Amino acid sequence: MHELAVTQSILDIALSEAEKANAKQITTIALVIGDFAGIVDDSVQFYFDFIKQDTLAQDATLSFRRIAARFRCRVCDTEFAPQDQDWSCPSCGAAAGEVIAGREFYIESIEIE
Ligand SMILES: [Zn+2]
Questions:
Q1: Is residue 52 part of a domain?
Q2: Is 55 helix (H, G, I), strand (E, B) or coil?
Q3: Fewer CB within 10 Å of terminal CB in the chain, N or C?
């Protein structure tokens, strides 16, 4: 459910940027979402289509760029991509991975007209 709040804040940011730029409409909002951000694209899209009505973003489309999760082993410093259920280090086998990518969530760009 927290995607509604998240989506509202995306829309609020996009609208305030569009107003500052005297835009007539927002055409695209590009989002970056890490695999570990806990954000589901489909939910964001669903809420966005609902709350964008009667705003400058009513014809806007969302684009999503996913960032794959990456870990760094705290024991041997190897960087690796976690497999489905296996988050242990492929070099030394330690289960001591630190998340170094995948928690991203931000607006990459907003296109306006
Ligand atoms: Zn290791």
A1: yes
A2: coil
A3: N
Q: Calculate mean pLDDT across residues 68-83.
A: 95
- Name the range with the highest mean pLDDT among 34-38, 57-61, 82-86: 57-61
Cβ < 5 A residues, ion ligand 1: 73, 75-76, 78, 89, 91-92, 94
Per-residue HEC secondary structure of 13-33 comes to HHHHHHHHCCCCCEEEEEEEE
Residue 75 CA, ligand 1 centroid: distance in Å: 5
Contact present, 15 and 51 (Cβ < 8 Å): no
Cα distance between residue 96 and residue 72, in whole Å: 8
Q: What is the CATH number of the domain that holds 31?
A: 3.30.2320.50
pLDDT tens-place string over residues 11-21: 999 999 999 99
Tell how far the Cα of 66 is from the centroid of ligand 1, in angstroms. Answer: 25
